[in-house]
Amino acid sequence: MPFRPAASTPAQLSLFDDTPAPSAPAAPASWPSPGPSAAVQGQAVLQPATTGPAPASAPPGFRHPRAQREIRFGEHQVHYELRRARRRSIGFVVGPEGLSVSAPRWVGLGEVESALREKERWILRKLHEQSERARRTQAARIEWRDGAQLPFLGETVILVLDPRSPGAVLNSDADALPGVPRLTLHLGLPEHAGEPQVRELVQSWLQRQARRVFEERCALYAARLGVRVRRIGLSSATTRWGSASADGSIRLHWRLVHFALPVIDYVVTHELAHLREMNHSQAFWDVVRSVMPDYERALGTLRQQVLPALD
């Protein structure tokens, strides 16, 4: 279901499912594409690439952990969650947990099943995409030890356990060979430090860097958009990259610091644009485009790139 602005202006707008400008296809989809989620007070769901567990059973079976119903699509048995809601139509969301269906209370199960069969190809495609994304996320899981690698501002950083280092210090090798990471993060820990120690020190450093970068980029784009930011906060929410409130407060997910600056700039611009247009109307997207004409490229990266699992 494409995004539909609420009749009233909400006090807060979130970068959930980033519905593209009206020129983009309006066909139902879900993360990493626009999703068929109910628009509630002008919001629709967008999930960061690493949130949520893998589906409980791999293809050809898909099982939502809160499934009460099931349906067979050819060789695929799909167990889905069915929720009754005050809405006018049947809605579908395919997320990391699997398929969720929302239906009006007066709609019978037969009609729900018919609607599912109409979207069979789309549902199976999205379930397979979620399964593949979970596999890629698991494969990218970080081992918190000397020599481990993780993304930072679009580059690869190598972790170095260095008891002589004061805390966490980023070093850059300008003479690194092509294809070899030039960034090393020296951690003031003994070589035998356990994974929890390494993870805590690195994540604290990443969050400090995130705040520094966000403050710099917000100041830059707020001036370009002519808006005033009163407060910038870090978020670790599992279902949003950022949010903006009418009082000028901005919250940004700290894990955006893994991405290159164009992606961070897009999320920053998106949230700052809400300080002028608290909706996702054509006027809102015009504001975004006024300072970032090629924002679709950054949005595509945000949707497609899989971040490493940190736990």
Give a description of the structure.
- The structure is a single chain.
- The chain is 30% helix and 22% strand.
- By secondary structure, it is α/β, with parallel strands linked by helices.
- It has two domains: 61-139, no CATH class; 149-304, 2-Layer Sandwich (Zincin-like), CATH 3.30.2010.10.
Secondary structure: number of strands: 13
The ordered H/E elements are EEEEEEHHEEEEHEEEHHH
CATH level-3 fold name of the largest domain? Zincin-like
Per CATH, the superfamily of the largest domain is Metalloproteases ("zincins"), catalytic domain
Instruction: Return the structural class.
Output: alpha/beta
Radius of gyration: 21 Å
CATH class of the largest domain: Alpha Beta
CATH architecture of the largest domain: 2-Layer Sandwich
Regions with pLDDT < 50 over 5+ consecutive residues? 1-60
Short description:
The chain is an alpha/beta fold. It has 6 helices and 13 strands.
Record the SSE blueprint.
Layout lengths: L11 E4 L45 E3 L5 E5 L2 E10 L5 E5 L2 E7 L4 H10 L1 H20 L9 E4 L2 E7 L6 E5 L10 E5 L7 H31 L5 E5 L6 E4 L3 E5 L7 H13 L8 H10 L3 H10 L7
Parallel strand pairs: 2-4, 4-6, 8-10, 11-13
Antiparallel strand pairs: 1-12, 3-4, 5-6, 7-8, 9-10, 12-13
